[in-house]
Hints:
Elements: H1 3-24, H2 31-60, H3 70-80, H4 83-97, H5 105-114, H6 145-182
Helix pairs in contact: 1-2, 1-5, 1-6, 2-3, 2-5, 4-5
Amino acid sequence: MDIFAHALWTTAGTRAVNSNLEKKHKQLIQVGWTAFWGVFPDLFAFVLPMILSIPTLIHNGLMFGRPSTMGLSANLYQYSHSLVIWLAVFLIVWFIKKRPAYELCGWALHILIDIPSHAANFYPTPFLFPVSSYKFLHGISWGNKYYMIINYTSLIVVYGYFFIRKMKTKRAQKNAKDYLASK
């Protein structure tokens, strides 16, 4: 899935979880950090290789194929898109902070979304690395126009729901305030 959609889905997921936590008066999950961790796997796998490839691209131009850092991207991708690696990091952070850092679940959500949204020919997700080399190869590419239409339409519906719920809450609060003012 594209990085923008990952940020939107992790933000939506966090907002949904937080709305339930608010009802129970529990500590809320930080939306910004969850969104960061939701895009982290792609940033980790592609930003450093992209920066390292700039001199090559300037020297050779864009016409001569892929930069030599693509191998580095593929290697980093294994680590950043592994639920095994994510779980290890999650548990280490939990041990250090003495509480779970639920914001890291954005990273796990990224991986779970990528498993069915990557086809065999373009970065299939190595979600069991380093335990297994298994990759789900029958996904639908996130670049497929129908997938993109369904994905962004779903995001519009989810954020539309959030907007309507927020408006209803504001209206109910205003009505309660007006009612109390009239007494």
